[in-house]
Amino acid sequence: MNNLIAFAVFQETARAWDVRSVWIAIPHGLIWWLFIGLLAGWLAGKMARGHGFGCIGDILIGLIGSVIGGWIFTQLGIGGHANTFLYSLAAATVGAVLLVAGDDAEWQNVHGAFRSQPFPMSKIWPSWSDEMFSRALSDVAVSGRRLAVLSTPSARNSQAYDGRPPCAGNASCVPICPIGAKYDGSVHVNKSIAKGARLWEKSVALRLEKDADGGVRTVHFKRWDQSEDTVRGRMLIVAANAIETAKLLLLSGVANSSDQVGRNLMDHLQKAVLGTAREPVYPFRGPPSTSGIETFRDGDFRKVHGAFRMSLGNDGWSRTGSPQTDVARLIETEGLFGRALRERLFHDVSRQVRMSCSVEVLPNPANRVAVSPLKDSFGVPRPQLHFATDDYTRGAFGPALDVIEDVLRAFGATVTSLDRNPQNYSGAGHIMGTCRMGFDAKTAVVDADCRSFDHPNLYVVGAATFPTCGTANPTLTLAALALRAADHVLSVLPTLAAAPVPA
After folding, report:
1. Would you name the residues annotated as active-site residues?
2. CB of 89 closer than 8 Å to CB of 82
3. Residue 84 and which of 15, 138, 370, 475 are 20 to 30 A apart at CA?
4. What does the pLDDT look like over 425-467, one tens digit per residue?
């Protein structure tokens, strides 16, 4: 095996590692390998986190990374130039990136919380504007605090995984990733079918039927051709989002001894602020958002108003129709065509900046899903939504917008669109609540395993079970709860009766 730069030289003898003196691997001595370590550690930090780790940190990370990268290169048969500068630097940098690419360090002790295990893969690389925000805030206090730009955990591949590619930065993640890098429900639908599950397409659940022994084993459904049918099973799992799940349970008259089904409907309220940067930030290169500011997710201020988080947008002013609307505006108002239009469009769009805030909404039993007297084309009653906001939630908009203005000022951007009216806001589409989880059957619909208190063979899975919503996107939490429920289902299923138990 070729000599590798770092603390040690590896030789392959009966598939074992033989550690020898570093001086064999590094022909130029101590200064040489310190320089390689420093440079590799700095490069890895810039690529993985947008910044280095200081002189000593860069050296240590680079030297450890060189061991990792050198071994990887050797396993891949890339060892013909082991004693050259470029080979040594490449191996050390690759290993150092792998060493620091996980986001555990930056997410440890965020509001006193610590991760119990590493993230399963490295983060999506921060966008250029993310790095610019991070640099702008590194030495500036905003609202009396030092703000950190953190990578946002997401159900999106940063490397090839499970037959799906890594994110390619198409900037078109909504509603479905065009290449499948972002997770969606079809992934596990296809896995289930491959394992023998049956999928009824073009079918609508009408109601669930409760047996005499209290079990819920039958689903009545209607196909798109208007024919009706039933399916039975030892266990039923309802995962139809927080609105349709609640409506189905209410229509069926099940799981509601607590009178909490449909109640405590929640979403995150949002406002967006648009700005123009002094220099290009190159939006539309990556997912709509890859980083955020989590500083205000908790604090004493919550005695007065709601918490909020802020996301840094990579999608320019797309929420107002850009860049299509920019093309129309430049043609209609300035008469630009051809090369002049192209150059002006690039100049304007490349400087577009967006920051958004998501504000927590408290659970309120009066915010609810009910059954409407109106029916859809299948003859099924529609859901009727009752939702109102309060001063506590709306009171977070003012402080959030103050912070965003200060951040954009530190960034050097000019605010071009900001609406301070607390009555004007958008929803995030994070529909939560309506079948809340708890420890008491009198005040909750399901227990900690997402199992109905009223029916031992009925589970509710999804964001409907959230008792509160905080400020974070719900997907990863609902996925974790689904995995928790799956473990419980596997342990309980063999004990359940396939038919009603005689009284």
Report:
1. 430
2. no
3. 15
4. 999 999 999 999 999 999 999 999 999 999 999 999 999 999 9
